[in-house]
Design brief:
With 228 residues, the chain is of the alpha/beta class. The protein is built from 7 helices and 12 strands. The longest helix is centred in the N-terminal third of the chain and has 17 residues, at 25-41. The N and C termini lie far apart (36 Å). It binds S-adenosylmethionine. Belongs to the UPF0585 family.
């Protein structure tokens, strides 16, 4: 597929409903390739949850499909979805409740521009932070908030994994992503595809390093950040 996978997210016109459960076509397509990457970075060695279970916090869960797809593959990891849009909490909640491995917590209403302490998280306490397709569809303050929170609330040496379209050295490729970026800016001048070089600088300010860049289908990338 050469067209950006995120066009479906930009319009929100392709979403479908199953009861109150939302299905984003793009999430349906990208959840399996992302899972393959997560399997390289998430340690899961038992079948059950306990007080010491690692916590995986998703920022901007959208429909809830991603955590629903990932959680059964890591039964000893506790997944905490979150969203700033309260209209999406119902869908995420249904996915969480229906999870066969019962390791998805109920979603929390969370704006990543706030410190995660506002939502009860302690500094150096989170094992994984995951964020897909938010940075380009939100003002840059949200990206800043994401990195500041990762730098503060991840445990030392823990990972933040981000997914979406990114430019490199100020260059967006291919043409479909250039067009997508134009359409984002038409919708909101504060939106737009973020450049990996800027993100690396932001990461350095927040005690994080980019340790892997993985090319994904539909001209997206997964970026893996590690807290120093
Ligand atoms: C394109 S959707 C991606 C949803 C999901 N992560 C996925 O990949 O299917 C972008 C999401 O970012 C969320 N978002 C925007 N601003 C946010 C903020 N300040 N804090 C948390 N989430 C935010 C929106 O509510 C929206 O659900």
């Amino acid at each position: 597929m050469s067209k950006s996978d995120d066009v479906g997210y930009a319009s929100y016109q392709n979403e479908s409903f199953k009861g109150e459960k939302l299905i984003y076509p793009a999430a349906s397509r990208n959840k399996e390739p992302i899972l393959h990457v997560l399997k390289r970075f998430i340690i899961s060695d038992t079948d059950t949850l306990n007080d010491e279970s690692p916590i995986f916090v998703e920022i901007a869960s959208g429909s809830g499909q991603h955590v629903a797809h990932f959680a059964p593959h890591f039964p000893d990891v506790k997944f905490q979805p979150s969203e700033v849009d309260e209209n999406l909490l119902g869908s995420i909640s249904i996915y969480a409740t229906n999870c066969p491995t019962k390791n998805i917590l109920q979603p929390i209403l969370l704006d990543v521009r706030n410190n995660l302490s506002c939502y009860g998280f302690e500094e150096n306490s989170i094992d994984y932070i995951y964020n897909a397709n938010m940075m380009h569809i939100s003002p840059y303050e949200c990206t800043i908030g994401l990195f500041e929170n990762a730098g503060t609330y991840l445990k030392p040496e823990a990972f933040m994994i981000t997914y979406g379209p990114y430019s490199k050295d100020g260059v967006i490729t291919p043409q479909s992503n250039i067009d997508f970026n134009i359409s984002l800016k038409q919708r909101n001048p504060l939106w737009g595809i973020r450049d990996i070089n800027d993100l690396v600088k932001l990461a350095e300010l927040n005690n994080l390093s980019l340790i892997d860049t993985i090319e994904m289908p539909a001209n997206n990338k997964t970026l893996v950040w590690k807290k120093n």
